[in-house]
Amino acid sequence: MGDRGQVQLVSEGNPDLYLYTHWTANSLPETVANALNRSRSRWSDHEYLNRIIFSEMIQDDVLEDIGYGIGFGLHGDVWRVVEINQDTETAGVKEINYENSDFSKLDFDNGNWVYTTEMMPYDLFIAEHATMFVSIK
């Protein structure tokens, strides 16, 4: 079946960028938090931050031709999305609301999403989800 999820990178004036994982949605909040923690000096440099997050996602599979992708839309069968708002430097986790869902594309289009982690500043998201910590000088 898979464990499908995405990171949604939001930046005003630009189309949302989506980083897709076929197998690691369950650990996606931890992965993103670790990337944010590692990239503190690049939080305001969106191109670098995007690359750092994706590198964290694919670090063990960088040469594989399956498992990960980059696109401009929500994938049809993800169950978890980690949203990154680069303008406000906030992050949150949203999941499909299974109580009101038959897990179809229509669910995603109709917004049957619930936030399991409210949008919060990067530092709080890191504190809640990261497993790798870097020292701040």
Overview of the molecule:
The protein has 137 residues and is of the alpha+beta class. The chain has one domain. 27% of the residues lie in helices and 27% in strands. It contains four helices and six strands. It has helices at residues 28-38, 46-58, 105-109, 122-129; strands at 5-10, 17-21, 68-71, 80-85, 90-96, 113-121. The chain has a six-stranded mixed beta sheet. β1 and β2 form a beta hairpin. α1 crosses α2 and α1 (28-38) packs across α4. The longest helix is centred in the middle third of the chain and has 13 residues, at 46-58. The chain is globular. The N and C termini lie far apart (44 Å). The model has no long low-confidence stretch (mean pLDDT 88).
What portion of residues is helical? 25-40%
Largest sheet: 6 strands, mixed
Q: What structural category arises from helix and sheet content?
A: alpha+beta
Strand order of the largest sheet: 3-2-1-4-5-6
When the domains are counted, the total is 1
Molecular shape: globular
Estimate what percentage of residues fall within beta strands.
Answer: 25-35%
Q: Note the run of SSEs as H and E.
A: EEHHEEEHEH
Distance between the termini: 44 Å
What's the total number of strands? Answer: 6
The count of helical stretches stands at: 4
Summed over residues and divided by their number, the pLDDT gives a mean of 88
